[in-house]
Amino acid sequence: MNNLAVIIPYHSTPAELEGSLLSLLENRPESCEICVVLNQPYENIYELSEDEVHFLNAAEEMTSDNRSVFDCMRLGLKACDSTYVYMMPAGVQFHSEWLGALDFLDRDEELKAFFLDPNLTQGGFFRKSFLDSFLQNSEEMGLGAESDVECFRNLVTLMQEEDLPCGLLEIEYVDENSEDQTEAKPNTEAEMEPKPEPETEPEPEIQAEVEAEILVRPEPVQTAALSAKPGIWSNICALLRRFFKSGNC
User: Fold this and answer.
1) How many CA atoms within 13 Å lie on the side-chain side of 98?
2) Are 150 and 158 in contact (CB under 8 A)?
């Protein structure tokens, strides 16, 4: 059994999928399998081997022409054998620092999932045993989703209704020229924006897009910092939040 399986439901463009696969193969963790569930045709022009990436054709596995992201996730889960899964939207660039989310899942057995940004655009890590059971039970609810983000939002909503806790990684952008970089601080605001660039040495603008409507944000219960490579983010702060049904802020 692998420690981690990365599952990518493919329903976007070849360039987005290939960008994600490249970032994964360059930063591939040990004991990790990669599964791409093809919800539309894709030509493996780089001739990636089965050992590198397992391509699963959803059309061959399902008779229905109306295959949702949830359906692709279920197919990927059935094909993988791992302790944890990372549901990764095509187009996302994988960063090895995100694997710190697995440490939180290891330490807290009650934690079922760990998402990587408030808007859920980066996907999330899950306990595979939990997600297998959870998606199987939710299948009879007739859930569907046209996009990965919608899929994750529906998942979080169901988890909140069941009082199941999940974590959230929040990113704080820090000026690389700042003298005070010794301690990463959690960003507890509803919106995150990059700190001002120095006027003397302008750097490329970094933006964090945050939608107006995001998850309910209860009081934080635990904070921790994850190390980051220079050039990706200067500081990444992991803020564990438990999402409860009441949604108290």
Assistant:
1) 26
2) no
| Residues 239, 107: Cα–Cα separation, whole Å | 14
Asked if residue 130 lies in contact with residue 112, where contact means CB atoms within 8 angstroms, the answer is yes
Burial of 18 per CB tally in 10 Å (0-12, 13-18, 19+)? middle
What was the pLDDT predicted at 225?
Answer: 40
Rounded Cα distance between 101 and 168, Å, is 9
Q: Domain map of the chain by residue range?
A: 1-249
Which alpha helices (H) appear in 38-174, and where do they start and end? 58-61, 69-79, 100-107, 128-138, 148-161
CA angle 219, 220, 224 (to 5 degrees): 170
Query: 129-174 pLDDT, tens per residue?
Result: 999 988 877 655 555 667 899 989 988 988 998 899 999 876 554 5
Contact predicate 170/214, CB 8 Å: no
What's the rounded Cα separation, in Å, for the pair 101 and 113?
9
Name the residue among 93, 95, 92 with its Cα closest to residue 29. 95
56 beta partners = 37
Distances from the Cα of 103 to the Cαs of 30, 86, 93, 126, 127, in angstroms? Answer: 15, 14, 21, 12, 12
User: 3-class DSSP state for residue 131?
Assistant: helix
Tell which CATH architecture fits domain 1-249.
Answer: Alpha-Beta Complex (3.90)
| Adjacent-strand bridge partners of 236 | 171, 226
Q: Helix (H, G, I), strand (E, B), or coil: what is residue 87? A: strand
pTM for this model (two decimals): 0.69
